[in-house]
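pasting for ref
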Amino acid sequence: MIWKFQNTEIYLLGSIHAMAEGDNAHSKSINDIYDKVNTVVFETSLDIAPHPLCFYDGDKLSQNISKTLFRDVKKVWSKFKLPYGDLEKSKIWQAANSITFNVLARKGFLIENGIDRILWDKSKKDKKTIELLEPLETSLSCFDNAPIEEQRKFLAQVVRNRSKIIDQFKAIIQSWNIGDEKKLSFILKSCLEQLPVMFNSLIVERNKLWLDNFLSAFRFGTPKLFIVGVLHCTDVCNIQNIVRNSNGFESEIINI
């Protein structure tokens, strides 16, 4: 799903961060837009190294969740053959994310097939100008600063209802492929209802923080493609509305 801001050469691509091979129904349209721009803007660097926010320093996972939840986490951790030495060091949200990525990977939804990952590698190969909306710490802090009870709920959901993760992810990809903005909005609202502080920080507040990057792009007029997760382009809190409410730049979807 791609939006173009009217009277500009500024584009916004709502991306899927992990996909199964062959899931992308819009590769030609995406490549056509990519070829029109000089600069590609990503949420953050995709050349990711381990980050200290992901692990406890002088604390343990088992001391921050219930015994029964830790027991369930250990079972899943072992099932996915994750390094046992990392289990106790992992913060609650990091354990949840690690399990989520493995649940999706088992079903073929791989980060290397993600739209942003493909375009990151392509941009580097083509020597296009790459810009970043934020440092990695910004997105990680959304998890790290979420209330401890939300983090525990997040981990419990991931461990005890893994089929829901898969079903929701399939729904996101299907909705993305057919341009079903209402369904994507419903999914985001569901996430906000279940984990309000975490997802408000991840989606709504980050959208607001990114506004200046769009305003700068409009001022200079350099053709740019912004690539963000598709939920950032969803519901009333989406980037398009924030931009329009700030300076009147309308956008229209050009890829459905």
